[in-house]
Structures are given as structure tokens and as C-alpha cells.
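Entry 0007
Protein: Type III pantothenate kinase
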Amino acid sequence: MILAIDIGNTNIGVGIFQEKELIKNWKIRTEREKTCDEYEIVLLTLLSLSGMNAEDIKSVVLSSVVPPLTPVFQDLSQSLFRIKPLVVGPGLKTGMAILYENPMEVGADRVVAAVAAFEKHGGPCIVVDFGTATTFDAVSSKGEYLGGAIAPGIQISAEALYLKTAKLPHIEIKKPRKAIGRTTVSSMQSGLYFGYVGLVSNIIEEIKRELGTKASVISTGGFAAQISHEVNSIDFHEPYLALEGLRILHERSRE
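Output (C-alpha cells):
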């Protein structure tokens, strides 16, 4: 079995693959202060509740956008599974040319998602990842990573309204019944929800225009299920795209 770990700013995605099949997956809250021992307890508990144990894991692959947690999970892999993990980063052959001006600047999560999207849907394609930040990544018909856009995530936008104003409350992010809000909360929800749909739609159209050809659009990430059906230009929703990408990179590294 392959253990795939995707360390994000808000959540850590964990998946167990039996060959190419994702048989189990979990989300763990990202806590930078947690120790290796504490994360070990969490993982062992999740495995045990699923009828598995540490000996079932034969390979570990991980990506991280939280640098302090990368060595924590490297140590965890060594101590818990006796396995040196494959870490997505500089020097790893992904099979995808990175055409960024400085390839070192591209987040591991963006590369992993782009690899999986191209593998599953071909190119050109656009990946929209609704995470802590919302990222837009363009892949050419040849499977080259072209670059993209980074926008504040919808949760960050909601937090900014609450933290940077004196009277606006902390709100739940959900679609309001009407765009014209009759309360402060419904007005904020309208601005956030419909405004975000507009932001996503517009950036996708701009990227498509620059690509100059028809492109598949794939959504993933925490808020993707909530927002994707509002954006007509999104063709596919892939909730486990990052984990799939990690599995693909693991296979390529073995080849």
C-alpha cells in the first residue's frame, strides 16, 4: 500500500492507495506546533480504525507547502513505517516541464495537481484549486506547466472582512437566497459568494483567451464542491486530485 500525504496550509490530506485505487482518505487539521509523536498518534489511530496497521504501508510520498512540517513528516515516515519518503520538490523528476521563470517558486501542491489533471484529462487544461489560496494553473497540450494565477481563498476573504472592519461579523460562507441582501450577514454572503464566482469565472476566461484554444477546466480543493457548480466553465470536479498526483509521481519515480 502507498501512503500519500498532502500538507496544506489549512488541512493535511492523507490517502491510502492499493495499487491505483484510493481505498481510504482522511483530512487532518494542519497544526504547525504539533510534534512528530503527536502526528504519529493521529495516523496510527486512523489506520487502526480502518483495520490497517503500520506494516501495511510499503511506500510513502508527500508534498508540502508548510516548510516546518516537511521534516516532521519525514521523521514520522522513518520512525513509524521505517520508510524514507519520496518528497515532491526540486530534483524530483515529475515528467512535466515547468516553464515558470523560476521553477523553484512553484508550490509542490500546484505541480502535483497539474500532473494529475494532465494524466486524467489531457491538455490543454486549467486546474482551479480552492484551498487556503485559490490557485489557477495552466497546462499545455504537450503537458508543460505554463504558470497561472493566485488569488485569496474565499475563507481568507471572509476573515479579512471580519478582522479588518469594526462592525462586520464573522459569517458562514454559503450561497444566499438573493444577491440583494436585507441583513448585514446576507449582504456579506452575497458579496463573498457571488463575487467569488465572478472572480473564478473571469480568471478562467482570461487564461483560456491567452491559451488561444479550448481547454478542460478541473476543480479541486476544500471549497470546490460548493463553488464549482456555479461556474459554467468548470468541466470536472476532482476532490482527490492532489492525492492522485502524488500516486502518479510515486509511480514515475519507481520507473
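Curator remark: The longest strand covers residues 21-29. The domain at 2-87 is CATH 3.30.420.40 (Nucleotidyltransferase; domain 5).
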